[in-house]
Design goal:
EC number: 5.6.2.4
Protein name: ATP-dependent DNA helicase RecG
Oligomer: single chain
Radius of gyration: 30 Å
Distance between the termini: 7 Å
GO molecular function, one term: DNA helicase activity
InterPro entries: ATP-dep_DNA_helicase_RecG, DEAD/DEAH_box_helicase_dom, Helicase_ATP-bd, Helicase_C-like, NA-bd_OB-fold, P-loop_NTPase, RecG/Mfd, RecG_dom3_C
Helix content: 40-55%
Keywords: ATP-binding, DNA damage, DNA recombination, DNA repair, DNA-binding, Helicase, Hydrolase, Isomerase, Nucleotide-binding
Largest sheet: 7 strands, mixed
Shape: globular
Number of strands: 22
Length: about 700
């Protein structure tokens, strides 16, 4: 793209410095490039009109033609509102209401004038009204309007300064007129030909102001394909560069691994675990640095795979680190692995925030000398004072809890040769999201549960069934089992209100079960108090644990067999699945009970039905992605990878797969993009600033 698109937006006719400053603050819009890529989020089909009698509260946004008859200001001061009556040609009436910009609206709204009104209809006292509708005066000669009208994201602050969707539309219209000569093709002619893509200029014109449904669809496909192609190209190039440039230690010896298999492994590995170990072993003997993501549902046996990988490192004179996000998880990993390490005569240590000074000194010494082969810990491992003799393997558990900078601090602990990296997660990631977030990693999946694991029975019960549920809890405790009861804690602003939910819940549980001991854990507790309560539960001193969602991912209490989730409709699907994974860790049958009131939204019903129907984390993650979008699912906003302009990972999986295949083919054939047919792509990448995440952006 030419320098034209670097022009500051204040130079576009009608914007100027003051409006430009507002657009920068509110929409991150600095240049012509930013403006032309501010795509509409929906379109109004201005060919469809409803009569007031046909309206229904379930309709999202509708368009009505009518005449304003009477308007009046109601209320005083800050509570003042403007109300107007709209009458359609059938004589039916609807009220239009404004709570903001009242004075300006009152001046500009003309009485006894015909308007097209667009907004969300709501019913109040048997009469329909619309709050803050969009208005367009219906002049005689303008009875028919254009085919599809774009609607752009804006903000309340911009609207208060008269920059609404229509004004943005006018800016883009005038920009497109002067931009036509500067829009260059950014894809190779081969790609355009192979995928029958429309050209870039036509795509930009028709995404904003479609001339027909066909042209709109072609523009949308072209821009989505281009965006996903460049994201994949960036990730795959990183992978190629890393493979070419980064050497890794070669781990060929496996005597201890063999001994472990023969004499100490008390259960059979699943087919999936064996396949993943083979994939890892292949990486470790390749001479290149391993960078692998290991995905596996809760309880699928990732930890034993991690331990075997650590043994391979130890067999080859290298040290390994296993880093977990919390002390509870680090303790759990350490306890589980120490048993095996002791049998094999391998020295393993643990370093967390609560490690004593004397312990730390010894650990630091043993790590520097190379005497200690394995260490498990938390962020404490990242401190500069922690130095290694030869760090060869870094394993990070629940890796999305750690920032990129934190992880790279660990890699830098071996200045001679970068360690192999294995990141593990029990959060099932839909394939489209994994390809976009971790497209530069090799992905291994443990998609099989160990033999003898019973599926967790999940049921949905309404509040009116509470007595029966409580009786079931008593029966389970009599069998020696333990119970989790989780309450929601949704947003900061609601924290106190929900905190009360938890306190009320705690009191009612104590009243309902006076004969049993009850623990309570929530986010406001100090770390040591939280730990103390968790440990009481682990030691079976308490039978019931009342908690918010702070009960950690991966906490292992094999004896806990019932998970009750209160107000289950207030949780996301992946969160419900994570919570359910706290039980089902022992040999006994486990249960998850989802408690709700009767009033449920359509999405809530879908989430609850999915939970009852399946235990498959990947299927659940796919449905969750469709319901919630990628940002919410993984907290990916902070990762910067999903700087998407037009694609939707929940809906565009087929385009993503095509785009990735196209990027792979090009890089295999021409890794440096030197061939003549790839010059458009090369030129476009060169025009970008170094920190651009989404390479499809106009720089």
């Amino acid at each position: 793209m030419s320098n034209f698109f670097h022009t500051k937006i204040e130079f576009l006719k009608g914007i100027g410095p003051m409006r430009a400053e507002l657009l920068q603050k509110e929409l991150n819009m600095y240049t012509y490039g930013d403006l032309i890529q501010h795509y509409p989020f929906r379109y109004l089909d201005r060919t469809q009109f409803y009569k007031i009698a046909e309206l229904d509260e379930t309709m999202p946004y509708v368009q009505v033609r009518g005449r304003v008859r009477g308007k009046q200001l109601l209320g005083e001061g800050r509570k003042q509102r403007l109300a107007a009556t709209l009458v359609d040609e059938a004589g039916d009436e609807m009220e239009l209401v404004w709570f903001k910009g009242v004075k300006w609206m009152e001046k500009s709204l003309k009485n006894h004038t015909d308007y097209i009104v667009f907004g969300k209809p709501t019913e109040f006292n048997g009469k329909f009204n619309m709050a803050h509708p969009e208005l367009e005066e219906l002049a005689e000669e303008k009875q028919t309007t254009s085919f599809l009208q774009p609607v752009y994201n804006t903000t309340e602050k911009l609207k208060n300064h008269r920059i609404d969707s229509k004004v943005i539309s006018k800016y883009i219209e005038s920009l497109l007129k002067i931009a036509a000569l500067h829009i260059q093709e950014t894809l190779s002619l081969d790609l355009i030909d192979h995928y029958r893509l429309t050209d870039k200029r036509s795509a930009l014109q028709n995404i904003h102001f479609p001339e027909s449904v066909e042209k709109y669809n072609a523009a949308k496909f072209r821009l989505k394909f281009e965006e996903l192609f460049y994201i994949q190209l960036r990730l795959l190039r990183q992978k190629v560069v890393r493979r070419a440039d980064l050497a890794g230690q070669i781990f060929k010896q496996v005597p201890t691994v063999t001994e472990f298999y023969k004499n100490h492994l008390t259960f059979d590995l699943t087919g999936a675990q064996k396949r993943v170990i083979k994939e890892i072993h292949k990486d470790l003997t390749s001479g290149k640095q391993m960078n692998r993501l290991l995905q596996g549902d809760v309880g699928s046996g990732k930890t034993i795979v991690a331990f075997i990988t650590m043994l391979i490192a130890a067999d080859n004179g290298a040290q390994s680190v296993l880093m977990a996000p919390t002390e509870i998880l680090a303790d759990q990993h350490y306890t589980g692995l120490k048993e095996f390490a002791d049998r094999l005569g391998i020295k393993i240590g643990k370093l967390t925030g609560s490690s004593k000074t004397k312990e730390r000194r010894e650990l630091h010494e043993q790590l520097r000398s190379g005497e200690m082969k394995m260490i498990v810990g938390t962020h404490a491992l990242l401190e500069d004072v922690v130095q290694f003799h030869n760090l060869g393997l870094c394993i990070v558990d629940e890796q999305h809890r750690f920032g990129v900078e934190q992880r790279s601090k660990l890699w830098r602990k071996n200045p001679r040769i970068i360690p192999h990296v294995l990141v593990m997660t029990a959060t099932p990631i839909p394939r489209t999201l994994a390809m976009t977030l971790y497209g530069d990693l090799d992905v291994s999946v443990i998609d099989e549960m160990p033999a003898g694991r019973k599926e967790i029975v999940t049921v949905h019960r309404f509040d009116s069934h509470r007595l029966r549920v409580f009786q079931f809890v008593r029966d389970q405790i009599k069998l020696g089992r333990q119970i989790y009861i989780v309450y929601p804690l949704i947003e900061e602003s609601e924290q106190m209100e929900n905190y009360k939910d938890l306190m009320d819940g705690y009191e009612s549980v104590r009243r309902a079960f006076p004969e049993y001991q009850v623990s309570m854990v929530h986010g406001k507790l100090k770390a040591q108090d939280k730990d103390y309560e968790m440990q009481r539960f682990v030691r079976h001193e308490t039978q019931i644990m009342v908690a918010t969602t702070v009960i950690e991912v991966g906490v292992n209490v094999p004896n806990a067999s019932v998970m009750i989730i209160e107000s289950a409709e207030r949780f996301g699907l992946s969160q419900l699945h994570q919570l359910r994974g706290r039980v089902g860790r022992g040999a006994e049958q486990s249960y998850c009970i989802l408690m709700t009131g009767y009033k449920l939204s359509k999405d809530s019903k879908t989430r609850l039905e999915t939970m009852v129907r399946t235990n498959n984390g990947f299927e659940i993650a796919d449905i969750d992605l469709k319901l919630r979008g990628p940002g919410d699912l993984m907290g990916t906003q902070q990762s910067g990878v999903l700087d998407l302009l037009i694609s939707d990972l929940a809906k565009d999986a087929p385009i993503l797969q095509e785009a990735r295949a196209a990027a792979q083919n090009i890089l295999q054939e021409d890794p440096q993009l030197e061939h003549a047919e790839h010059q458009n792509i090369r030129r476009h990448i060169q025009s970008l600033s170094a920190n651009t995440v989404n390479w499809s952006r106009i720089s």
